[in-house]
Amino acid sequence: MFELSGNDGAHLETRLLALLERLWHSSQIREATYAPDSQSAKFAQLRNYREHITLGLRADGAGYKYDVSLPLPVFYEVVEVMRQRLLEKEKNSHEKPFSVTRVCGYGHLGDGNLHFNVTSPTYQPALLAAIEPALYELVAAHGGSISAEHGIGAKKRPYLRYSKSAEAVRLMGRLKAEVFDVRGTLNPGKVL
Predict the structure, then answer these.
(1) Would the pTM of this model clear 0.70, i.e. be above it?
(2) What is the full DSSP assignment across 158-183?
């Protein structure tokens, strides 16, 4: 799903329809729909689908959610690679078994922000261990960031080195302590 805007709506619509036609004929897409007017009921319905993805995933049981950023050429590849890795580990995990219901991703192509999600019937520490740090290593290998729009909190702090050098982490700490949070009252214990 994507949303476009521009100064010349008619020209944009013509280009979009031409692109969809090329993708259809080259079998890169199987289904498509489009709402030319952002005020239409169809547009509202499509937007509603996007807004309810998280609720739909909750129906699977436990959720493991990640917010990473990646270069566009490998944006969805990370989902496919992690799906394959987790399914292989699930099949071969005799010591600490776990089960995976779904591995999926969605996000913002404009800024490379991927919402990576894994679901399982119940929370399983072995599954979490199979995801982390493998996901962060894969993101780092592609020059991405382990955190996109939600920042580094307590959970991701140990993994920050996958996206930032030790010097950059030290600099962030100094900036927080010496410029933004001299009294130590803003998000105590957080990196920035």
Answers:
(1) yes
(2) GGGGGTS-HHHHHHHHHHIIIII-TT
126 within 8 A of 98, measured Cβ to Cβ: yes
Dihedrals φ, ψ of 145, to 5°? -125, 140
The packing angle between helices 77-92 and 134-141, to 10°, is: 150
Measure the CA–CA gap between 148 and 103, rounded to whole angstroms: 19
Q: Is the dihedral of CA 48, 36, 72, 190 positive or negative?
A: negative
Cβ atoms of 48 and 30 closer than 8 Å = no
The model's pLDDT over 73-97, given as tens digits with 9 standing for 90+, comes to 898 999 999 999 999 988 887 777 8
Q: Is the peptide bond before 133 cis (omega within 30 degrees of 0)?
A: yes
**61 with 122: CB under 8 angstroms?**
yes
Element (H, E) at 24: helix 9-25
